[in-house]
Structure formats: structure tokens, C-alpha cells
Write a structure and sequence with these properties.
With 491 residues, this protein is α+β, with helices and mostly antiparallel strands. The relative contact order is 0.09. It is built from ten helices and 20 strands. The protein is flat, with a radius of gyration of 29 Å.
Length: 491
């Protein structure tokens, strides 16, 4: 478990055009949450004069960061370096104490190391300083249709803070009794130090909005940060499992843990040659998340988790953050009901330590065929919104009662539109059902589902043509039952 709390400085690439202020203000309004410390350095935007139609050249961005001495700004922020060159380790010790874990506190008591001395671990945090550079480009604004779209490249850099650099910082440390000549020499020494940034990765993302380009920029930021957390290994929270009934680990709000968040379980094994290696065991989701946003005392409560896949989990195994979207896509064929083919989208809204889960659901059903009467083709398209509560008697089996409210729209080819009102060609329906799922192999499930549905409030033309189609035996009845069988893939 070598996870170290990271800190981030965010920089926006300006292009010298009318979008600069709107994009920068949108990004500045965002928060990184509790998982990261923020290094508020003086440089929060850089200028790269190139067309907004394409991404800026990465080498040009790196050159500007080097010229602006961003690494030196980060170190100066950490040490609270003032205009006179004086520095302080107050922030380092404070953040070092905040990032401590219970086990480190307990170890310090056993070894009789003063707890205050543990704050010096904050020096390790300096090396965990990152720069998150956001380069927005390819802006699309359609005010008439209210479509706003923007792309972003998120470039991640890390401060390469070596022991040699740390020693040079100590050499440049100004003390109260230093003479003006010594102070000048130490300031000159600090200014001569080069604090390099190491390139880590670049992720690409897009954001959309139906209100304005600033909201699209925020959407792009969220997508880029999500992908960056997956791409930067050091940003993924790691902790050891302290118990298994239920599974518990001492991480929580301080590490940005949220209900439903996915983590992967690893076990450490010794190979034949004596080397240690990690092997994947399975996945868990965070259930009861504790508020640990305070300095550890050695008695901090642990968060609990529910295992969703894999083999036996044992104490001492390692949890590592492995975010997913908490979404599931379903495809099903049905017998009876209002649609022989359905696709769905399901979002895991909550899960507890026993595996009981709440889902929000969106379903699209299609029933299309050639009419036997004077119409060329008929199509019913229904859209349903709903929710379900799933129970797990054993880990691979999930039983879920569900309810939905939806709209069923009828389209008849060859019939001239006699009304532009959508609801004249539609009806409402309510549906209740139950599903049983079996996890074949994570993340794939197969399921069977039984439903009962009723229609109400038929539109005038929906009722007229649906009555005719009922005479053919193909229209939608006022009440139906049905069974569906399908596949769900989680991602």
C-alpha cells in the first residue's frame, strides 16, 4: 500500500480569443472535492497563440510551462515562500498530519515516535504534486437549436521532486539570523534551482450542453477528469482490507470515496523466485462510507463494501480504486407486453453492505410490422422511466422488483398527419414487474423478467388507429402481461 495523497494545480490554456474568459471562469468555479489537495499557484492560465479549431501543440504547452517555471511556483506554494525568500514548513506538516492513516498513528505509538514527527511525511506529498493543463478547442455553438459542444485535451504533469532538489531547498533556507548578504546568496541559489515537470499522460474528452458553452466546458472537464483518474495510477486510492464480514477498509470521504464506487481487490503473492506480485481477486463497491475528513487518531471508523465479483476476499488484501460509470446496458427480447424488442439503460443509485441496490431505469421498446390493412407499415415506440430495488440472496443472483411509467407513440406510414400534437398519437402506460439475474462472468448478466402493464389516457388518433389494428390482432391492448429474456452488461 504505497498510496500517497496527491495535490493538483489546474491551468487553462488561453488562445487570446473571446472564449478565454468564459472557459476560464467555468473551470475556476469547479471543485476537486476532498480527495485532492489544491496547490493555488500564481499561474492559473497560459497563453498559446494558435487556432481554437484544433488542439495546441503539446511541446509548445510544455515549453510555456518550463518558461513560466511552474515547478518552482509549486515548490514555493508548498513552502509558503515570501517575496523576501523566507520559507515555512507549516503547510507541509499540516497536510502531512491530515494524510496520515490510523495504522501509521498506531505504529508511532508502538515505536515511541512522536505523532507530531509524522507530519514530516508531508515532504512525500510534495513529490505527489501534479499539474492539470486543460486545452479547450473545436468549439461549436448553435444558438438556434441550443447545441453547444467543445473538446478538451487534459495534459497531466508531475513535479519531479528528488532528494537532490530537497537538499538544494534546504541549502536555500533563510534563517532569522542570516545576514543580508547570506540572504541574497540563498535567494539567488533558490532562483537558480530548476524544478522539472515530468509528463504523465494526455486524455481527450468532449462536453455538450443545451444552455451555453461554459456548461459544455464543465461537462468536458468532468469527462476528462474521470478519464484522468483511470489513467494516472497514483490518483487511484489504495487501502488494505481490515475485515471481511462485511468487507471493510479505513478509507472514506477524505479519499473522495462515494457510495457505489468500484474498487478492485488484489492479493500479494510470493513467486517461486521470491519476488512479490499482485494478482486480481475481484471487484467490490463502496457501501457505507464513513466521514474521515479529519486528522487520524488511530480509532477512525472503516467504510464497508459489498463484493460484486471474484473469489474469496481475505484480510490484508488490497483495495484499489477502479472507477466505472455505475451503468448497465440491457438488450432483451419479449413475448407479450407492448414491445418484442427492448433496450435499456440502468444507473446504480445506491448499494448497501448486504448488496441491496437501487437502480434508476430508462427503457426503449419498439414494435414494428407491416399492417394487413391499407397501411404500409406500423410502428409503436415506447419510452419508460422507472426504478427498481434489487436483492441478492447470493452474490451471483439478483432479484429486482421494478416499476415504470412511460409513453407509447404510434406511427402509421401512409396516413397524412391530421394533428401535430404528439399526445394525439400517444398514450401513457404504467408497468410493474420482477427480474431475476444471474452473473455469468463479470460484468455480464443474463436475466428473465415478468411484466404487467396498463394503458391510460389514449390520444385521439392513437385510439382511432390502435382500435383498427386491434381488429387485426396486432394493436396494443389496454392491459397486457409479458415475459422478456436478455443480457445486461455493466460498465
Amino acid at each position: 500500500d504505497d498510496y500517497v495523497r496527491s495535490s493538483i494545480s489546474t491551468i487553462v490554456v488561453n488562445r487570446g480569443d473571446g472564449y478565454d474568459a468564459r472557459i476560464f471562469n467555468a473551470v475556476r468555479s469547479l471543485s476537486l472535492g476532498e480527495k485532492f489537495d489544491v496547490n493555488n499557484i500564481p499561474t492559473d492560465r497560459i497563453l498559446v497563440r494558435t487556432s481554437r479549431n484544433r488542439a495546441a501543440d503539446s511541446e509548445q504547452i510544455a515549453s510555456v510551462l518550463e518558461r513560466e517555471e511552474i515547478g518552482k511556483e509549486i515548490v514555493s506554494f508548498w513552502y509558503r515562500r515570501g517575496e523576501n525568500g523566507e520559507m515555512s514548513d507549516e503547510l507541509i506538516l499540516k497536510r502531512g498530519m491530515y494524510s496520515l492513516r490510523d495504522q501509521e498513528i498506531l505504529n508511532s505509538k508502538v515505536t515511541k515516535v512522536g505523532i507530531s514527527a509524522l507530519g514530516e511525511k508531508g515532504y512525500d506529498l510534495v513529490d505527489g504534486s501534479y499539474v492539470f493543463v486543460l486545452d479547450y478547442y473545436d468549439v461549436y455553438e448553435n444558438h438556434k437549436d441550443k447545441i453547444y459542444r467543445i473538446n478538451v485535451d487534459a495534459l497531466v504533469y508531475k513535479l519531479d521532486y528528488t532528494e537532490e532538489l530537497l537538499e538544494q531547498v534546504y541549502d536555500a533556507w533563510i534563517y532569522e539570523d542570516d545576514t543580508p548578504q547570506v540572504r541574497a546568496q540563498k535567494n539567488a541559489l533558490f532562483e537558480s534551482i530548476v524544478f522539472p515537470l515530468e509528463y504523465v499522460t494526455t486524455v481527450k474528452a468532449q462536453g455538450t450542453s443545451n444552455s451555453n458553452i461554459a456548461d459544455a466546458a464543465i461537462s468536458a472537464y468532468d469527462n476528462a477528469f474521470y478519464r484522468s483518474e483511470k489513467a494516472v495510477d497514483q490518483w487511484r486510492v489504495t487501502s488494505s482490507i481490515i475485515s471481511t464480514r462485511p468487507i471493510k477498509a479505513k478509507i472514506g470521504t477524505k479519499e473522495g470515496l462515494k457510495n457505489g464506487q468500484r474498487l478492485q481487490v488484489y492479493k500479494i503473492v510470493e513467486e517461486r523466485d521470491g519476488d512479490l506480485d499482485s494478482r486480481k481477486v475481484g471487484y467490490v463497491r463502496a457501501a457505507d462510507v464513513v466521514n474521515n475528513s479529519h486528522v487520524a487518531t488511530g480509532q477512525t471508523e472503516a467504510s464497508s463494501f459489498y463484493q460484486i465479483s471474484g473469489g474469496n476476499v481475505e484480510e490484508g488484501m488490497i483495495l484499489k480504486q477502479k472507477n466505472d460509470l455505475k451503468l448497465g446496458v440491457t438488450v432483451a427480447g419479449a413475448i407479450g407486453g407492448y414491445a418484442p424488442l427492448e433496450v435499456g439503460l440502468e444507473y446504480l443509485e445506491h448499494i448497501n453492505a448486504k448488496g441491496t441496490s437501487r437502480y434508476l431505469m430508462l427503457n426503449l421498446g419498439v414494435d414494428a410490422y407491416s399492417s394487413e390493412s391499407f397501411y404500409d407499415a406500423v410502428a409503436y415506440v415506447n419510452l419508460g422511466l422507472g426504478a427498481g430495488i434489487a436483492f441478492r440472496p447470493i452474490r451471483p443472483i439478483e432479484i429486482m422488483p421494478l416499476v415504470q411509467l412511460g409513453i407509447d407513440v404510434l406511427s402509421v406510414t401512409g396516413v397524412s398527419v391530421q394533428s401535430n400534437e404528439t399526445m394525439d398519437w400517444a398514450t401513457w402506460f404504467a408497468r410493474a414487474g420482477a427480474r431475476i439475474s444471474w452473473q455469468v462472468i463479470y460484468p455480464v448478466q443474463i436475466f428473465a423478467q415478468a411484466n404487467a402493464a396498463v394503458k391510460f389516457a389514449d390520444g385521439i388518433w392513437y385510439k382511432y388507429y390502435n382500435d383498427i389494428l386491434l381488429q387485426e390482432g396486432r394493436g396494443h391492448k389496454p392491459a397486457v402481461t409479458g415475459f422478456s429474456f436478455g443480457v445486461k452488461v455493466n460498465f
